[in-house]
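hiii, so i know i said id send this last week but things got crazy w the move. better late than never?? heres the sequnce for the chain we talked about at the cafe, plus the structure i predicted for it. fair warning i was half asleep when i ran it
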Amino acid sequence: MNEQARKKRIIFIAMFFLLALLGAWWWIQQQSLELVDTVWTSGWVLLASIFLPSIFNLRKRLAAFNVGKASTWYAIHVVSGFVAIFFYILHAGFKIPTGAYEILLFTLFALVSVTGIAGYVVQAILPRRMTETGEEIVYEKIPEEIYEIRNSAKSAMLAYTESSGSNLLSKHYDSALRWFFEQPRFYINHVLGGAKAPAWVRSQFEAIRRFASPDSMEHVDEIERLALHKLNVDTHFACQDVMKRWLLVHLPLAVAFLVTVVWHIILVHVYAS
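okay and structure toks below
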């Protein structure tokens, strides 16, 4: 029910902004037919569409106050961002920018738009991928989690060697599994949702089971369980790391763009007067 309500809310917001976009576009076209300079109108409409996405970060800082659902603000952020792209094109026109300042403004807007769209894709896919692991893992605690997994795997390996009298598992651990348990692995594969990481783990334990002592198989099972758990940890690390790094790129670009927009408005009014 909550998911349906969320989708309805997003659709409502999208329809509202679509109607607002069409209304603003019609108004600008009417001014053009009346031979009125539409640069000012499109500029102020563009400023409004730029302002709406920028206040999403302000909402995060006011989370303690009842200022609406985060999903609603996020939907406004995304939809108004796409509206801003439309009005930027309408305001600047389909032309190559000339002059250092125009190039800077265009470049920053393009980078903010591209990283924003990329962030939308990331936010739509990666949280779902983490949910599919069936585990909830805090990013800051991942190093500690991997440390505990690694120690448990070493203990199980030593227990196997002691109970079976064979160094088969210890050799395989040193040649392959040690590398896997040391730190997060298969970063790109986890981000893209590939099957390389689980296939690698499966192949390692298929090889071990062919030669392992049946009487000490519970230790092999324990290491495999730890390896599968680490796959989930690695998935969370890769997905959360991408989401954090994306924000560190998108947010500074957005701030830099807003600063240039303010300076642009000042220059326009100075020269217009």
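btw Residues 42 and 99 are 21 Å apart (CA to CA). thought thatd interest u
miss u guys!!
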